[in-house]
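Sequence in, structure out. Go.
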Amino acid sequence: MRWRRQKFTFMVIPDANNQVVRFQLSGVVILSALILLVALTAAAVTAVILYGNRASEVGRLKHELASSSGQFEKIISDKDRHIGDLQTEVAGLSEQAKSIQGKMADLGKLETQLKQIAGLETKDAPAAKVSADETADEYAMDGEGTGGEEIPVTDEEIDGLLQETFSDFTDLGGMIDAMKPRLEETKDAVLKRQAQLRVTPTIWPTDSRKITSPYGVRKDPFTHRARFHAGMDISGDIGDPVYATADGTVSHAGVDGSHGNNVMVSHGNGITTHYSHLSKILVQPGDKVHKGDVIGKMGSTGRSTGPHVHYEVYVGGQTVDPKPYLHTSREDK
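Output:
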């Protein structure tokens, strides 16, 4: 290792006009310089390699971050769209609730009208939130005849609409629960009323409406003296149909000198009707007849001055004025 202690001379030769520069370096210095140069080179190479790896890693992370950011933006966009759809559904449910409330109000009015038609007592039904004039047609969700500025809805407005819609549907549940037994009661009452009307003599016994002699005191057409007329005379033509004025059972079908050919029908509840001076009897005692059935033909038999029907109504065994009972024709019965 003597070369480490030896001196090495180095010359630097500039251009021709300058002197040659000489300097000496020991082997140790030269060795150290070489080692330092190798170390610096290794460090530089290592730095370059590390920088390249770091740059690659940073690029990869940037790519992953960009990809994740895109995914998050898509998720947020999907969430926003989903929230928008839910808001639209809430608005639709609110409109449906109001539409159903309008229909419930219409059903309540229909129930009242049915009771009025049937002559039943009406009670005020619970009112819907919509007014009576607001029908379901006003909430037809088809967009026809609508418009206005489009303003984004706020969270507070949606929360309020949700609470209102929830309240509307809660009210609807109560209205439906209350209406069902009411409708059942109305149905039973209407059926009972219909059954009662079937056995109540409410229709005319003839197609003719010409009353020639009313119920009450009159001058007798034969004696010309004041006498009580227990029925009502309706004139017409020989052979015109005579109708049962209510459901019932034929209790009498025969002939006598005063009433001529005559028929009596018992309707129950103490009500009986009597049809006299018929030209022909078409029923027999015991027959079941319905309101509007033809039970005979108009005539002038018995104590009569011309073709007509002498029509009587008995209630509790006593005659009453038939005219108040003549409400409808056969077609309206």
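Check: The first strand starts at residue 7 and ends at 12. Residues 27-118 form the longest helix (92 residues).
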